Amino acid sequence: MRTTTTDSPARIRHVYDGHVGLYADSLVTEAAALLDAYLTTASKHGLDRSVADEQGWLALSAADAIARKYGRPAIELTPDKLTALATALRTAFTAEGMTVISSQIPMGVAVAPLPDGPGWGTGPGGWDDPGGLAVAFHSNSGWALTTNHPRRHVPVHPIYAPATEAGAAEVAQLVHGVLRGDTADPFRRHR
CA–CA separation, 35 vs 15, rounded Å? Predict the structure, then answer.
């Protein structure tokens, strides 16, 4: 198997940073490998690597292709698989040092906000209650991040990660980054 060039992961991360949603590191790695394969094919056709992707279309294509692979499952997930994913996510949140709380979101697993992190004023106690975040996973969709609030119309942002235990661990890392303020808050306008 080919290893990725040093700039391919950075180029893929740059593409993903410009999109709405959160992207697991495993997707960056996979998309970078696809980008390298595209560039290798281009060089076999006599194109210099820098010329082949001068406008960034190959990087965009690789990033989008891999994101689509993980945006929603190819087949509907069974209730047993959904339960296993929720259990893996609770375990991953705890391993990341977050506090799992009661979810206000159907099929969701919620975590409390961190004392020094951002808040969303969405808890059951009103605007003074920071609420926290919830991640849901449904039988026909991928991971979804939302605020932990029972109202029907809350913003939802996709999290692109595998529907596996390892994917749950990556989701927990991404959510922890949002709670710490290290990852751009997808709920803030003009992030």
Answer: 12
